[in-house]
Amino acid sequence: MKTKNLIAQFIRGVAITAEKNIRIYYAKAPVLIFGIIFPIFLFLSFYLGRKIDLYVFFPGFLAMSLFFGSSSVGPMITPWEKNAGTYERLLSFPITVNIIILGDVIAGMLYGIIINIIILTGGLIFLAYNVNAWGIILGTILASFCFSSLGVLLASPPVKSPSTIMMLSSVIRFPLLFISGIFIPIGDLTLAGKILCYISPVTYIVDIFNFSLKGTNNIAIGIDFIALILFSCLFFFLSSIFQKRNLLKGL
Amino acid sequence: MQEPIIKVKDLTKRFNNLTVVDNISFSVLKATIFGFLGPNGAGKTTTIRMLTGLLIPDSGEILIDGINIKNNSIKAKMKLAVIPEMGNIYVDLTAKQNIVLAGRYYGFPRKELYKKADQILNMFELYDRKDEPVRNFSKGMKQRVNIASAIVHEPEILFLDEPTSGLDVNSQRLIKNIIKDLNRKGTTIFLTTHNIEEANQLCEEVAIINKGKIAVIDRPEVLRNTFEQTMAVEISFNIPAESEILQENNLIERIEKVGDKLKLYTSDVDKLVKYLVNFSEENKLKIISLEILKPSLEDAFIKFTEKKKL
Prior knowledge:
- The complex is a heterodimer of chains A (251) and B (310).
- Chain A is mostly helical.
- Chain A has helices spanning 3-25, 29-47, 54-84, 86-92, 97-126, 133-154, 162-178, 191-199, 201-214, 221-245.
- In chain A, 78% of the residues lie in helices and 0% in strands.
- Helix content of chain B is 36%, strand content 29%.
- Chain B contains eleven helices and 14 strands.
- The longest helix of chain B has 16 residues, at 169-184.
């Protein structure tokens, strides 16, 4: 097959898979719970009754909502499709596993971006930030891709029940959130805490949002972007390996 | 002369130390209906998954219309469609959306697909419910949507895994007619089924697979005739006769209970009928029905799969 045709086939496959996921999975209860309701309640439980300056806390909340939003769709799709029997049909179409994975990642990414645009718009109306638009746009795109890839990676274990994966994804996602500098600023952490902090990809988007909204940052912005790119590659690469390895398990 | 559209050579697949498909070779001629029969765990699904590019074989070669599926799976997949056993459609989408979605993966423009979907839904007697989510459909209707979405791109080969399993009689009949119709239009059908009668009605050639090996490939008629020397007598008495007593007779090779009847396999029908008449008199039984049966494809299936078990 000619390269041009292959590229067209690849793009078409990714777009159709992403569109299919958007139509089917955006309104599923676990996605709504883990993607929208959870970060809101986490924010409220942390914010209400405390004397916290919303101006300072908002970039962290924005990063948290992007993290939860982007990573909530991916864990659902593969287990749900294996359970429903649609995964085998999907594999029979003229597409590769990487096309399916990328379609899943794009669907999760767009979900996170949409939620983030809504929250950011609200924040910008009520809080007077001097916005670095490029930082926000690039950071949001990169981080949503990264977190969505993580979500798809979390869907790799061969289980039939989506609830098992949602539990597993919570076990992984919560620690990543708590060590990211959202609740405790990186500057206040001990050395061990700081080292842990750098393991979480959420740390870098918190830093980018802090820089883009408040003009303050703990890590060099270039490093934040590079770290997000590296985490994205790692998560996508691991998703590809594990999803291929467990392709027919759980069917 | 018809040309083979599927060529399988020395195909082997192992899972850990278990050889699920063991060095099988066969070809399927263009525009025929090929039946792939075998008991549970014989290797049917694994073979289909390899033929459709879902599984990579450990060794051997698969050519789909001359294309090696291992090296060029996307090009080969363009020529085929797969209908796994059940539930392979998106129940959150409508019947029409399912068909359009499938067609888009093959590069058809959306506008063209909407027209095509309407035509197909009409053919499958689903047009009136085209905009309803599939989750509200019966099992038979879901299976029709399943097949409808698979044929939207007019595949050259259609793989069907147990297409009528668990369906009501009307849905079964409709699906069988659709299969025949597609085949008349030139589609090659690769059909796995447990329903021997279905294979008998539909297939021009059948392969029987057992324990990962092809036991036999031939036309159903030829397979039945292979066992012409073994005929069966179906008999029922006024009270249930003990099959164990009948079994003691050397004339009877095998006994099967079919409802309230006994199916007795023999190579000498005349002698067996005489024996049964004497047997009924001696035991004061009354013969309610007695029928001499020709060997069926099912008999061939049982013989071939049993022979391998020995």
